[in-house]
Amino acid sequence: xxxxxxxxxxxxxxxxxxxxxxxxxxxxxxxxxxxxxxxxxxxxxxxxxxxxxxxxxxxxxxxxxxxxxxxxxxxxxxxxxxxxxxxxxxxxxxxxxxxxxxxxxxxxxxxxxxxxxxxxxxxxxxxxxxxxxx
Length: 134
Hints:
Elements: E1 5-12, H1 16-27, E2 30-37, E3 42-49, E4 52-59, H2 65-73, E5 76-83, H3 87-96, E6 107-108, E7 114-118, E8 128-132
Parallel strand pairs: 1-4, 5-8
Antiparallel strand pairs: 1-5, 2-3, 3-4, 6-7, 7-8
């Protein structure tokens, strides 16, 4: 699969407003998007730091994917998102290369992205997201 680069780093946080204040104060982050996404169980904000992007994720409940992540591992790095031109083609290439796909087909993601996740077991323990359209 040919990636255009890292689209964003996803960070699980316990309090989105507090995390935003920290990233703004320490790194000069600028909020790009902010939304509550009930079907994914998160309040999220995409912040720009220079040319880079960090996605901050606060769970809406403990029984959501990010809520379970926080309970098990605490706040911190949640995933790395790789940008591609064609998500369907990228998923086919990843599958053919032996990756264990969490999402075999693209689904709507945050902030208008089309997304799919690759299981961390396939990427040396790192949850990986493949994104297009953002």
